[in-house]
Amino acid sequence: MKMGKMEAGNLLRFLPLNQPPQRLVHYPRFPNGHNSTVTLYASQGESGYRGLKPRREWISDWVSNNDDLVRSMPIYVGGLSLLVVLFNRTVSGIAPVADAGSSQSRADLLTLGLAVTNILNGLVWLSIRPKSISVVNPNGVECQRTDPDLPDFVISELLWAWISLSDVTCCRSLVIVYDGKCILQTGFASASLSNGSDAVAVDTNKLIKGSLYQGVLKSASQSYLANLSLYPGKSELPFLPSNTQAVILQPLGDKGIAIIGGDTIRGFTSSDQAWITLIGEKLDSTLTKVI
Asked: What is the pLDDT of residue 194?
């Protein structure tokens, strides 16, 4: 593999300091004749990692695991408040008819109003629930296509980006178009109508003329289509599986774009988006030197 000190330094800049041991993954020979080796980082047991661990949010975890109970709690609190007010009025010897001139009656009326508000709030919480979002299995075929003119070290870096994204995000499809050519199409793709086992190839000429591609290059910033089914521009991405849930369009400088398809609506977090931006800058830095 031909890689200079500059490329190696840039690649190491994005790797964690407390990294577990390395392992080499040898990919089989591609149809276009490339054979590449990718270096991945695999942990060998919990004892191998001594970096910071994510903090657990106990309250949020408990609320998410007891959703029905939390939504019903205002009803229980309101009902209990009503019983307490009635019991207090019974044992205190106050006339059951509310008297506007009595401070006790005014306090009881205020408490009853708050109790009824709690009950109504609980009923609203039970009747209105957020739509559950689940992972969707892509309707398509798996493929891996690369540009035969690319050096081996570029192929390895592209595959490193794909493996990284597919392992830690909801990414299930990755297409990279650079300098007017599709240099990588991997993951799930839409099945061809003529042959269901073949993936639909990326029509770069049609894609480049589309509003999505032009809009991303013009803004020079990432575009996140959190719910792809709501965007008319979905028709410009026929090579992605028909049930792709979310898409990130990441510009690669002013010469290309990375199209990342996910299997979950709003599945890419803000941290994922920031990380994808860094990966896009790294790929653009490498591709600029060879294309």
From this structure: 82
